[in-house]
Amino acid sequence: MIVIRATADEVDLSGSPSALRQLARSIGELKTGQEYRCSADAAADPEPYERCLTGLRVAATDGPVRVSVDGALLVVEGDKSNLDRFTSFLAIEGPGTHSHYEYHEGNLYIAQDSQSLVVSCDG
Fold first, then answer.
1. What are the residue ranges of helices labelled H in 1-123?
2. pLDDT for the residue numbered 39
3. How wide is the angle at C-alpha 122 spanned by C-alphas 29 and 38, nearest 5°?
4. CA within 20 to 30 Å of 95's CA: 15, 29, 118, 122, which one?
């Protein structure tokens, strides 16, 4: 199972290597117009973040990937090719390893108003 921790400015999505690989596979199977949803462990310890979210919704839409929080859900939406790029950030292994998914000037694949996301491997 994944855990999604959040503050107003940043989100951390964490899971075991197998959970992150499964998430990447599920997102990779999306076709334009489809959504993938999964629950997250909302009872996990949110530290050092403020709260845990209850789930994830990924939508294959159009444009660059936008990461946002909608209520208690982490929402990731963008076109298929950009979602495929997003899944590469889920390909981390080993306890304590992580990657950062965030917009930087000139990046055409991540929306400028996308929320910063840290992907962490629990082990």
1. 17-28, 80-87
2. 98
3. 35
4. 29
